[in-house]
Amino acid sequence: MSGHGHHGQADHGDHEVHEHDRGLSYDLPVLARRRMIRLLAGASLVPLVGCGADDSTSSAAASDTSSSGTASSSSSAECATIPNETAGPYPGDGSNGVNVLKESGVVRSDITSSFGNSAGGKAEGVPLTITLTVVDAASGCGTPKTGAAVYLWHCDREGNYSLYSDGVTDENYLRGVQETDDKGQVTFTSIFPACYTGRWPHIHFEVYGSLEDATAATSITNTSQLAFPKDVCDTVYATDGYSRSVQNLGQLSLETDNIFSDGYDQQLATVEGSVDKGYTATLTVPV
Q1: Could you give a GO molecular-function term held by this entry (predicted)?
Q2: For 12-286, CATH number?
Q3: So what's the pLDDT on residue 163?
C-alpha cells in the first residue's frame, strides 16, 4: 500500500505527537499481508542484503567508525520485493498538496540545499551519503534496474519536513530524484535525519519505472522506507543539534515502531563511517 492521506500541518519544533505517518491502524492491512507472505514462504527464504528473510538481522558492535546493518550472503534462490509502506503525509509528490517532482532542479544528487524559487536554505547536520541499489526481484535480485528512478526525501535535524512543516514551508531541501545507473544505483548527498516523536529514524523513497515517470509524478512502482541501526543513531544524536532526538529515540525501538515492527530486515540500511568524516548508508531495493 502506498497511498497518501491528507494530514494537517504539524509544529515539529514543539515535539507534539505528529502524524508523520498514518499510523498502525492504517497499516494493519499491509502488516497482515506481509505476515501471510512469510507464513507461505517459511524457511525457504535465503537471506540477502536488503531482500532477506525476517530473521536474518545482524549488526556490528557500536563504535564511532562502526558498520551496522543486515547480513549479506550470495544467493538468487529467493528474493522478495521491498515492503510497501505509507509515504506519510509529507511526500511532496502531488498526492498531498505540493508537488516538487515537476519543478526544474529536482533531479539532483546533493539534496542538502533548497533549489529553484525556494527560500534557498540549507539543511545542517552530520553528513550522510545514501546509495540505493534497485534490482529486479523476479530475477532473484541478480539484475539491476537500469533506467529506473528514485525519489527520496526525509526530515531535517529538527524533525521538520520541507514544504510542510512550520518554518520550512518555503524550503524544498532534503528532496531529490535520481535515475539509476548501469548498476541500478542512485546516490544522494544529505544529512542524517532526526528522530521525531513516535517514529524510528527513517528515510522515505519512491521507485518509478523511468525518470520521465518520476518527474511527471506518475506511475509509482514501489513506496518504502529505509531504517537506521540504533548504534549509529546513538552516536549521531550525541552531537550538537540533535538533542531532541536523544529523548525521542529512547522511547522507541525498531520492534515497536508502527512501520518496522512487523519486520525490518529488508529495510535496515548498512551504515558505515564516523561523525567527523560522515556516514554512508546503503540498501538493496528489490522491485
Answers
A1: oxidoreductase activity, acting on single donors with incorporation of molecular oxygen, incorporation of two atoms of oxygen
A2: 2.60.130.10
A3: 98
